[in-house]
Design a protein that fits this description.
Blueprint (H helix, E strand, L loop, with lengths): L4 E5 L4 H12 L3 E6 L9 E2 L5 H7 L5 E4 L4 H15 L2 E4 L4 H18 L2 E3 L7 H11 L5 E10 L6 H9 L5 E4 L2 E4 L6 E4 L6 E6 L3 H9 L2 E9 H8 L18 E10 L2 E10 L1 H17 L7 E2 L2 H4 L2 H10 L3 E6 L15
Parallel strand pairs: 1-2, 1-4, 2-3, 4-5, 5-6, 6-15, 7-12
Antiparallel strand pairs: 7-13, 8-9, 10-11, 11-12, 13-14, 14-16
């Protein structure tokens, strides 16, 4: 496709560097933007409290990808700048309150300005939303969708830790078709496909719930994550990710397992891959290309799977070697629900 000028806010951060690299590999012209140039001298400097600087940074951008958390602080000023510049906006937040606020505050303004605003187009949020949409498999509604995430470890970045300290909002789940506060309940296990197998899990909704509630007609949704990576996250001694290949990826392995249920019928979709920070780059860049570079135009605030063909999107990631997707014969994988307050 034709090269685009795409601004990346938080370009010097861990995820931002992956996004810059992915844009360059695809022939685009990334514009590095951040709050200071201490880590990347060529970066355009645009503090969040300086609208004029943000306007200069986005002046020639067709789209902006926000990789700088906490998104509770960064999303609104960057979306406002994107609206002024008529640049499409994407971010990679895992913060439920940030994604929900983006939908509520900026849908009408984005439609008026003719731009697309897509929050949570990364590992957390976007990937689960795409899998849930595929798991619906033609259903117009479902009784329940469960999304379970397994990580073999979690080496948190500095940004992840600062986001966790900032993100104290109550978690939301989907019950009776409405977003509602998550309630404590009993511990459980989840039977993941290999290589993870049976894992102790807790219910811990991320942005998948907010995105899916935007466009899927589901009576109830539950999100789980295995306990092992949460122990890593809670431990202040856990180091940041260590690169083990030429692309900067770590050895961390992930699997997302999604089951949609309607009466006695069940559909199951999974995706597995490596490094939750690195995989975010091809997801969000693929989103920018498909939404901004395609012939079909949107305007407003959308969940990722609202704007793209979900099966085709996942197939593209698989062709790139980023993930392995499978459709499984579904089976009951969870007996009861657990609750945790972390990240």
């Amino acid at each position: 496709m034709q090269a685009m000028n795409i601004a990346v806010y938080g370009a010097a951060g861990h995820t931002g560097r992956f996004v810059i690299g992915e844009l360059r590999r695809r022939g685009h012209a990334p514009v590095a933007v951040g709050r200071d140039n201490a880590k990347m001298p060529e970066m355009r400097i645009a503090p969040l409290d300086d609208p004029a600087a943000l306007d200069r940074a986005l002046a020639d951008a067709e789209a902006v990808i926000n990789c700088a958390g906490p998104f509770l602080d960064t999303a609104a000023p960057l979306i406002e700048a994107a609206l002024r510049a008529r640049a499409h906006y994407f971010d990679v937040t895992a913060e439920q309150r940030s994604a929900r606020s983006t939908f509520e505050r900026f849908d009408a303004a984005a439609r008026e300005r003719g731009i697309v605003v897509v929050p949570a187009a990364g590992f957390y949020g976007g990937l689960g939303d795409l899998l849930a949409t595929c798991a619906m498999n033609g259903w117009t509604q479902a009784d329940r969708v469960d999304i379970a995430i397994a990580l073999d470890s979690w080496w948190p970045t500095r940004g992840t830790r600062s986001t966790g300290a900032r993100n104290t909002a109550p978690r939301l789940t989907l019950r009776d078709g409405e977003l509602t506060a998550l309630q404590p309940s009993a511990p459980t296990t989840w039977n993941f496909p290999e290589p993870f197998g049976t894992q102790d899990v807790v219910e811990l909704p991320f942005t998948e719930t907010i995105l899916a509630a935007r466009h899927l007609h589901v009576h109830a949704m539950h999100n789980y994550i295995n306990e092992a990576p949460l122990r890593d996250l809670r431990d202040p001694a856990t180091p940041e990710p260590v690169a083990v290949d030429e692309h900067g990826r770590s050895n961390q392995q992930f699997l997302i397992d999604v089951i949609a249920r309607n009466g006695d019928a069940e559909h199951r979709r999974t995706a597995r891959g490596r490094d939750i920070y690195a995989i975010t780059a091809p997801i969000v860049v693929e989103a920018v290309e498909r939404i901004c570079g395609g012939s079909r135009r949107h305007a407003g605030a959308f969940a990722l799977a609202q704007c793209v063909d979900a099966p085709a999107f996942l197939q593209a990631l698989e062709r790139m070697g980023e993930i392995v997707c499978q459709a499984h014969a579904a089976k009951r994988s969870v007996a009861s629900i657990a609750h945790a307050r972390v990240f």
